[in-house]
Predict the structure.
Amino acid sequence: MESLLPNINIDKSDIFNALILILILYIIFYILQHTLRIFFKRATFIEPKRAETIQSVFRNTIKYLLFTIILLLILRPFVNVGQLLLAGGIIGTIVGFGAQSIIKDFLYGFFFLFEGQFRKGDFVHINDDQQGGTIEELGFRAVSIRLLNGKLMTVPNGEVRKVVNGNVLQRRIFESVIVDFKEDPEIVKEVLEKICDHFNILLHDVLLKDGFGEPIEAFSYWGLSSLDSSPYGYKFSIAATIKDTDYVPAVQQVKMALATTLREHNITLAEVKRMIP
């Protein structure tokens, strides 16, 4: 049987040609990436997050291709690549070490990209993860998520079973407060209605608008949720629909303003009371 290893006789011209080819490939990759970035920057018919997602997938895919080509160029002086492929060495290795998993990841990545289940920059919870995080990279092989604690979690696409996406063009702020039963419900209602008016001015730019520029759901007093929702007091709620990209800072402002306003009006929040025998 003919050996897969050729007679090693490395020519300097071969090394030079390989280096030139690698350089050309990197230049082509850079030009394609730069052209794609300019195209999506100027294109108004593609949503910015979708454009970023496509660029991310393109960048990762090109990296895989470049790595494969460079690896073959490096092995070429030492290994008879043609006979190695014919002998089924590489194919057998891939199949033996989990080609099915790779194909599964690739197919899932393809569906994620074109179905738009989530995009780069979305805040998601993967597989019932309670913490959640922001998608940094989305490729055909895996998705990378930056968790709230700063750690980077990478999940193979084939293992993504359930996704809760917090960014679906709109998000709804629904905040509730539970006040002590001794408080006057009418006074609490008036305070919350006034603070909703304040939010509609302060956070007007983040409210989701319709085609006429009017808020789809401005901040409003939702009502007394339920008398039996908490054994410690009355539960009141306010609600509004805002842009998904502004949810985190907006909801933090709402929480802080609610706490501050209730304190200014001397409205007591519910407390856990223990009966000591």
The helical segments are 12-42, 48-75, 81-86, 89-96, 99-115, 185-202, 247-264. The chain has a mean pLDDT of 77.
